[in-house]
Specification:
Length: 492
């Protein structure tokens, strides 16, 4: 794990921050939560709409079963208790991109509660960050301020996103530093990605995060007044926004002022937060049970069926991979960056003659080259299948370790996978020139009369020594199998 420097602002004062995060994750279903409109991103504005998601009078919502399965799977992966019965509720507010005038969400009876995520807490220890709840809700539409005629005078509304399924994951105020917030979000995204229920694409808004933050004198039990930072579009910016906001709150309090409960926006160019509006309280939304939907029941049988589809999660997978392949924790971290990559690695390693050699090559030959080029492993010119193929060639003696290093260098130079470069370079460069090899063998035998005598006296293992010497003389370019053959012939 890349460690992020400790935030100086906080540690140097007598105040401690209290942070809670609300994360909205869009579920990767083909259709919306209460109608059969497509959820596809990037469609022409207002093309994926129907009377239900447009909020026409009399249109009734029908719950999408896959949405429930995805949300339940995410909740299980986040160690939550899934409630057998949860209730949809109307959250009432007026906004131009909310055609019904309310959003269908869940309030006092959410889908799931009491979960946690573990984050590294230094020195190999872990800290549990509580998850208060995971609930289902529908997304609102989008107000557009650019990209159409008259954009300087008018705002346009695109309702394609209206009714797209979301889960909201609310953390306990257990997060003590901006670094922990960053870690929490990184782990959360990783877990959700592994479950496959969302692509967590922040640019397309599939993962959005709001942060609640307050400060209090160290040792005080009572929480300070919090502000909410909204619509920050990267984890790095959330960390920066929190550092700024904590510093701002401490300054206000230390200079005798009071924190106002409000929503603030982060400007990443300036690295500052700005007041947007005073924060609504829950009662402002006049929540009440949604009369058009029955209570949602996820019984034990259905829950068990969903739980069966849970893949091995990243933390457990890393621990297993360290044991199984003898790789370092850091490499396991890199190799489990995505489920696809970890799958690729493991299937390559298993298909190879020697799985551990694949892991060793990734560790000793691939990682360093990637780092030197500033590439992440997803953009490696050498695929996991390429690493496995090269491992097999070394294993069979078809290429030497030295040749492998040269071939890897060429792969990075040319931006090509191992097999392609091996075809171009590998075969011709294998020294299979028999006469040159025979000459090298004669020289080695002549230079080592004592070993030759031992061999002739019956110590046949001495052949390994001669092969080694010939390989050395050929600077690793010789084909060891061929050398072995020629030597045996000559000595026999
Ligand atoms: Zn619709």
């Amino acid at each position: 794990m890349v460690s992020v420097p400790e935030t100086s602002v906080v540690s140097q004062t007598r105040f401690e921050p209290v942070i809670g995060l609300e994360v909205h994750v869009q579920l990767l279903t083909a259709t919306k939560i209460f109608c059969s409109c497509s959820t596809r991103f990037g469609a022409a504005p207002n093309s994926n709409v129907c009377p239900v998601c447009l909020g026409m009078p009399g249109a009734l919502p029908v719950l999408n079963k896959t949405v429930v399965e995805f949300a339940t799977l995410a909740a299980i992966a986040l160690n939550c208790q899934v409630n057998e019965t949860s209730i949809f509720a109307r959250k009432n507010y007026f906004y131009p991109d909310l055609p019904k005038g309310y959003q269908i969400s869940q309030y006092d009876k959410p889908l799931a509660e009491h979960g946690f995520i573990e984050v590294p807490a230094g020195g190999g220890s872990k800290k549990k960050i509580g998850i208060t709840r995971v609930h289902l809700e529908e997304d609102a539409g989008k107000s557009l301020h650019e990209g159409f005629p008259d954009a300087d005078e008018k705002t346009a509304i695109d309702l394609n996103r209206t009714g797209v399924p979301l889960i909201e994951i609310v953390s306990e105020p257990d997060i003590a530093t901006p670094d922990e917030a960053y870690e929490y979000l990184t782990r959360l995204k990783e877990i959700i990605l592994y479950t496959g229920v969302s692509d967590c694409n922040m640019e397309e808004g599939s993962l959005r995060c709001d942060a609640n933050v307050s400060v209090r004198p160290r040792g005080q039990k009572e929480l300070g007044t919090k502000t909410e930072i909204k619509n920050v579009n990267s984890f790095r910016f959330i960390r920066e926004a929190l550092i700024y906001e904590i510093g701002r709150q401490v300054e206000v309090i230390e200079s005798g002022g009071k924190i106002t409960q409000e929503t603030r926006l982060y400007n990443s160019n300036e690295g500052k937060t700005y007041s947007m509006r005073s924060k609504e309280q829950a009662h402002d939304y006049r929540y009440f049970p949604e009369p058009d939907l029955l209570p949602l029941v996820v019984d034990a049988k259905w829950k068990a069926e969903i739980a069966q589809t849970l893949p091995e999660l990243p933390e457990a997978r890393r621990e297993r991979m360290v044991k199984e392949y003898g790789i370092t924790e850091y490499d396991a971290q890199v190799l489990t960056f995505s489920r696809a990559l970890a799958d690729q690695f493991e299937s390559a390693a298993k298909a190879a003659k020697n799985p551990k050699r694949v892991a060793n090559l990734v560790q000793s030959e691939l990682m360093g080259r990637l780092k030197a080029k500033g590439l992440d492993i997803e953009h490696s010119p050498i695929s996991m299948a390429g690493v496995a193929a090269s491992a097999d060639l070394v294993e069979s003696g078809a290429i030497s370790g030295k040749m492998l290093k040269d071939l890897y260098d060429l792969c990075f130079e040319r931006g090509k996978d191992f097999s392609a470069v091996y075809e171009e370079e590998g075969r011709p460069r294998q020294s299979s020139d028999t006469s040159a090899l025979e000459k090298a063998i004669d020289e080695v035998l002549a230079a080592n009369p004592k070993q030759l005598e031992q061999y002739r006296a019956g110590k046949t293992t001495m052949i390994g020594f001669f092969v080694g010497q010939v390989m050395k003389a050929s600077k690793g370019q010789a084909n060891p199998q061929l050398v072995n053959e020629l030597l045996t012939k000559k000595l026999g």
